[in-house]
């Protein structure tokens, strides 16, 4: 998908119809595009699957997914109505639907487009299967990505596939293990269908499917399923990508990863969403993370946390400066800014529409980019899963984490016990992947949310119900098979 050139005229019309779940794909609706009218070329199929990205690109260009994970140490939000998320006590939030409904709708909207694409391909008689395999693999990959987010945010949710999504209003929610089974099956199929290389860097490759599957395996090995045999599967799947070292590599300078001008050419991004102000997917997160001080013209909706910055290893200044924005454009240090918190550096550069990495934003709909999976994450997935699968850190596991540490200007690790190495990997994930929607999920899958957050908010009540978000109240009436999570 070239997100800058989406053929949205068709996608916008047909996707709206299909999301309602009430359109017979074989029905000839006068004036409306149907499979027999539209899907005549491979470009038509390609255009349609592009629409499955749109709700995701829009979502990650907003505050929503970052604020939803603000119970972790990296993100702080001064917005009063979101403070419950910050303190992992969401019962205190007056209107959690402001966050949770946006997550729910974006993922299910994308799922619906994926399901429709899979259904249309199944009924195709015009093209050979191998011609449509890349598109079907893309739909399977995106469907797996969406359910992976939903199961980690909400736990049990309805499993809507191409054969039952017309019953979305009444489908019951299914167990977490069933959801993971489907995610795994979709990604295994996507591995065989997706190409080894894409001309368009925004489209997933076979390697992206393998990398995401490794991350799924790592999550399944932890809470709540605790199926520890999956650590070995995560290790092996991650290694399939790592051993082909000509596919991805760490950028020399961490800071350069987050420059808009490098977004298409860096060697580290495995799967990334690219927003465009010219096609309606431009995001505002670049402005939301900027200081609200007049010189910056931002909103300061969420920032880093000064306690997190205090613990952040200084090492090479490139990682510090690439992660945080510590000095305002007029020279004011963050301590003297309005929020008096270190600001987020990674999401700051939205390209020319936002004035660039250092300039004042000129638009709320910038050409941002939001990396969902990158090579350093995969190296750390390998290090963690190999250590836990084998009962001790191997030479390969040390090599994986030390590559990340060396780039960050930190010394190599050696001679650690299994537990020491495990703690080192989790810490490194915290520093390396800050503000990338990872830390909250790491705390949850390792079941260490309570002891970690207590260091920041000692008076906050945290129990197992906080490991999931409340399901959107609006959806409890729309989808009658959905039950609210315990504790809400």
Automatic annotation (TrEMBL):
Q: Which residues form the SusD-like N-terminal domain?
A: 90-218
Q: Where in the cell is it found?
A: Cell outer membrane
Residue limits of the RagB/SusD domain? 360-488
Question: What InterPro entries does the record point to?
Answer: SusD-like_N (IPR033985), SusD_RagB_dom (IPR012944), TPR-like_helical_dom_sf (IPR011990)
Matching entries from CDD domains are given as:
SusD
Q: Cross-referenced PROSITE patterns, in alphabetical order?
A: PROKAR_LIPOPROTEIN
Write the protein's name.
RagB/SusD family nutrient uptake outer membrane protein
**Highest taxon, organism lineage:** Bacteria
- Main location class: membrane
Family statement drawn from the similarity comment of this UniProt entry: Belongs to the SusD family.
Q: Which UniProt keywords apply?
A: Cell outer membrane, Membrane, Signal
Per the UniProt record, the lineage of the source organism begins with: Bacteria, Pseudomonadati, Bacteroidota, Bacteroidia, Bacteroidales
State the signal peptide span: 1-25
